[in-house]
Amino acid sequence: MRKTARPVRRRRGTPASHRATLDSRPPRSSAPTQLAVPTTRGLLERILDVPQLARVVPHLQPEVLHRVIQTCGLEDCGELVTLATPSQLAGVFDLDLWRADRPGMDEQFDAERFGVWLEVLVESGAQTAARIVAEMDPGLVVAALAQHVLVFDVASISPDMSADGEEFDVVSSLDTGISCEIGGYRVVAKRSESWDAIVAVLLALDAEQQDAFGRL
User: Fold this and answer.
1) Which of 26, 28, 83, 96 lies 20 to 30 angstroms, CA to CA, from 145?
2) What does the pLDDT look like over 103-121, one tens digit per residue?
3) Contact yes or no for 189/149 (Cβ under 8 A)
4) How far is C-alpha 15 from the geometric centre of its chain's CA atoms?
5) How far is 11 from 153, CA to CA, in rounded Å?
6) Which DSSP category does 28 fall into?
7) How large is the average pLDDT for residues 94-108?
8) How far apart are alpha carbons 53 and 45 in whole angstroms?
């Protein structure tokens, strides 16, 4: 991601003609001056107060939207994210979900960050989150979910034989204790983070976005 250097406003000196003198002005207080420092919350509130925001956001470049998210925090930008188009989000995901541990190293997909994205989307409603996920690149969604869950077709599961000749259920042997059935599939958590958000999205997809659910 290319970063644009922020312009720095230099502090101007006080002209000699305006400097205080002991004869013309009272002594200045030694108490520190309280300066108004802009906060990220204030910045986000100003952005959200933009007239016709729903028409403005879809025209932002992904790089601009990503900088806003980085500055204000993903968890606080749910309203902006839900107004973005699928192509915008694809660009933002490309910038936000692939990271290198150190400069010069290959970028790796950040599965934990993807989970945070799902949590933010679900806060705006599971149906809204499902709609956005349904419009995303299926390959990206599958690769991302694969970092979080294992999925088995319940109808195709059959007991296997162990080395000592006893039957055992493959799915049960992999079950981490966090699992559920959705649309005829057994979904088993590989990690507990973002599990509730993932289940909420999959349930909404199964209920209202059958084609998208089938692609996953």
Assistant:
1) 83
2) 877 888 888 899 999 999 9
3) yes
4) 49
5) 66
6) P
7) 83
8) 12
